[in-house]
């Protein structure tokens, strides 16, 4: 108790910083837990949620609407296509496999009418995001 009462101003500042940091860590933990649980409620897994977020983000960025249930179904199929092509260990260095991935994604997006507007930027971003997602996941 005496040590606490005899601390100097610098110790108080350090204590305040640590308290603030601890509070932010707790808040971040709760936010991450909520985010982790969000995909379960949607009926999709973690990777499908990542593709869902990519597709939804592109719809918002390029200002077009796409139905939520269709977005979830599309995210599931995108994951299957990317998983199929990324099963080869060197897939991200092989132009032939990356080309197949692009063709398969174009066909899949066309089948689902995504995007409902003709924007080459959307296709380009989807390819980059799909490739980067699997490349940096280590699978």
Describe the protein.
The chain contains 6 helices and no strands. The chain has 2 domains: 2-37; 43-137. It has helices at 2-5, 9-42, 46-61, 68-85, 95-112, 120-137. The protein has 139 residues and is mainly α.
Estimate percent helicity.
over 70%
**Could you say which overall geometry the principal axes of the C-alpha atoms support?**
globular
Main structural class: mainly alpha
Number of helices: 6
Give a brief rundown of this model.
This protein has two domains: 2-37; 43-137. Helices cover 78% and strands 0% of the residues. It has helices at residues 2-5, 9-42, 46-61, 68-85, 95-112, 120-137.
Main traits of this protein?
single chain, 139 residues, mainly alpha, 2 domains, 6 helices
């Amino acid at each position: 108790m005496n040590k606490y009462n005899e601390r100097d101003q610098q110790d108080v500042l350090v204590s305040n910083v640590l308290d603030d940091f601890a509070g932010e860590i707790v808040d971040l933990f709760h936010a991450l837990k909520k985010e982790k649980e969000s995909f379960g409620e949607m009926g999709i897994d973690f990777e499908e949620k990542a593709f869902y977020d990519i597709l939804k983000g592109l719809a918002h960025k390029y200002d077009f609407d796409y139905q939520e249930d269709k977005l979830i179904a599309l995210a599931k199929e995108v994951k299957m296509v990317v998983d199929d092509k990324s099963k080869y260990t060197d897939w991200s260095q092989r132009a032939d496999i990356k080309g197949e991935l692009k063709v398969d994604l174009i066909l899949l997006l066309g089948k689902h009418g995504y995007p409902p507007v003709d924007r080459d930027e959307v296709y380009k971003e989807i390819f980059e995001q799909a490739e980067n997602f699997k490349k940096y996941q280590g699978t």
